[in-house]
Amino acid sequence: MTDVIKEHDFIEIDYTGKLVDGTIFDTTEEKVAKDNNLPTDKGKFGAATICVGENQILPGLDKELVGKEISKEYTINLSAENAFGKRDIKKMKIMPINSFKEHNMQPQPGLQIEADGEMGVITRVSGGRVIVNFNHPLAGKEVVYLVKANKVITDPKEKIVSFLSTSMRMPKDKIGVAVKDEIAEIQMPVQLPEQFTEAVSKKLLELVKLKEIKFVKPETMKK
């Protein structure tokens, strides 16, 4: 019997995202990226591991995965609202040109900037004012994804590492996990607030189904 994806399953997936005109904007496959002139120097390619239902990918795509069969490729169409969102006029912001000059920046249309943790693109410079668009570049566009779930992940250690790596945008090799007798010990490269680790431990217990999950200092982690 073929496995069917359920909510909170950890799965390994390959995908390619494209616009309705066929323009590819994202993929897990390096060959597809090279064939379509996508940047190939900003990270490793390869299948992604996600927890279904935890919004670790686009919300619309996340929902569509439930009920799909493992090892079968699907074409999933997403409206703008279920993909990168509708264009929001409130995210078009006017900024004084002096705020750029204070940082020795010369604003010009097309330049990508970061302000208050948000990425935006300058669309116009006029009369001492700079108009910046903080909408996602694909906001307002329908998209199509080719998706294939390769397998369901069952190893608790792999689940924990993938969840933390995706949630915290941290390389997997920076996260240490040891699991024994249904107890997981997690070692992170930085000290995290206790309130944060308690919340994460509670979520992982719910998803991974272990008896206990605790964050430990490097010197106390068991081999």
Strand content: 25-35%
Structural class: alpha+beta
Broad CATH class of the largest domain: Alpha Beta
Rg (C-alpha, Å): 21 Å
What does the average pLDDT come to?
A: 91
Shape: globular
Low-pLDDT sequence parts? none
Helix content class? 10-25%
Count of individual beta strands: 12
The name CATH uses for the topology of the largest domain is Chitinase A, domain 3
Number of helices: 5
Order of secondary-structure elements: EEHEHEEHEEEEHEEHE
CATH architecture of the largest domain: Roll
- Count of domain modules: 3
How many strands, what sense, and barrel or not for the largest sheet? 5 strands, antiparallel
What is the CA-CA span between the terminal residues? 38 Å
Summarize the structure.
The protein is of the alpha+beta class and 223 residues long.
Furnish the topology, listing elements before pairings.
Elements lengths: L9 E10 L4 E4 L2 H6 L12 E4 L7 H7 L7 E6 L13 E5 H5 L10 E4 L2 E9 L2 E5 L9 E11 L2 H13 L7 E5 L2 E5 L6 H15 L3 E4 L8
Textual characterization of the structure:
The chain is an alpha+beta fold and 223 residues long. It has 3 domains: 102 residues, Chitinase A, domain 3 (Roll); 45 residues, Beta Barrel (Thrombin, subunit H), CATH 2.40.10; 69 residues, Alpha-Beta Plaits. Helix content is 21%, strand content 32%. The protein contains 5 helices and 12 strands. The strands form 3 sheets. Strands 1, 2, 3, 4 and 9 form a 5-stranded antiparallel β-sheet that branches. A 4-stranded antiparallel β-sheet has the order 5-8-7-6. A 3-stranded mixed β-sheet has the order 10-11-12. Helix 5 links the parallel strand 11 and strand 12. The two termini are 38 Å apart.
